[in-house]
Amino acid sequence: MKRRFIKVILFMAIMCVLCLHVSIIAYAEQSRDCAIDGHDWRSATCTEPDTCKECGETKGEALGHSWENPSCTMPKHCVRCDETEGQALGHAWSQGSCVTPKVCGICSKIDGKAPGHTLDNKCDTVCNVCQKTVGVPAHEDRNGDGECDVCNAKLSTGENGDEGLGVGAIVGIVLGSISILAIIAAVAFAAIKSKKK
Ligand SMILES: [Zn+2]
Ligand SMILES: [Zn+2]
Ligand SMILES: [Zn+2]
Ligand SMILES: [Zn+2]
Ligand SMILES: [Zn+2]
């Protein structure tokens, strides 16, 4: 029991000595005398002149910010300390059109792609946005009624061949009917003739 107590006392004593030692070093550093040892200068910054880390004495003047002009995306900023002032200019977009994308007049950045013309369907050749006529209408007449299936435009040339065939068919039907009538008439005539005999 007694030995253990002595051990504890000894341990505490060692700790005290250590503490004291550390405190003495700290005190010695604190009491560093600029007049004797010279100042411990920290270099000037944009906003502070050369400053002694120990006594706070200053020398000369602050550097002042080294401003760079604002750009489209960056406000006026200091190249040394990244301090900013105001706001970025923002892009100055040109009008752009269906075929040309918007371009920034300041930094020449291109804003995406040109949207292309806006047409209702493949027969429409006038852009709904810029009113320009583009391409040729691609009419389509699958049911052969002489009108475009998409836009109902009357289709003049090119489909006449079909119509000609139609006329031919009608002529054929008429001629056919006439010949059938002729045969009936002939048969009837023959029957009448044989009755007369
Ligand atoms: Zn000092
Ligand atoms: Zn600065
Ligand atoms: Zn820009
Ligand atoms: Zn257009
Ligand atoms: Zn059409």
Q: What does the model show?
A:
The chain is of the alpha+beta class. Among the domains are: 52-116, no CATH class; 117-158, no CATH class. The protein has helices at 2-30, 34-37, 160-196; strands at 41-42, 50-52, 58-59, 67-68, 76-78, 84-85, 102-103, 110-111. The strands form three sheets. A three-stranded antiparallel beta sheet has the order 1-2-3, with no helix packed on it. Strands 4-5-6 form a three-stranded antiparallel beta sheet, with no helix packed on it. Strand 4 (67-68) and strand 5 form a beta hairpin. Residues 46, 65, 78, 80-81, 83 line the site of one zinc ion. The site of one zinc ion has 6 residues, from loops.
The proportion of residues in beta strands is: 5-15%
Bound chemical compounds: zinc ion
User: What count of helical segments does DSSP give?
Assistant: 3
Distance between the termini: 168 Å
| Largest sheet composition | 3 strands, antiparallel
* Sheet with most strands: strand arrangement: 1-2-3
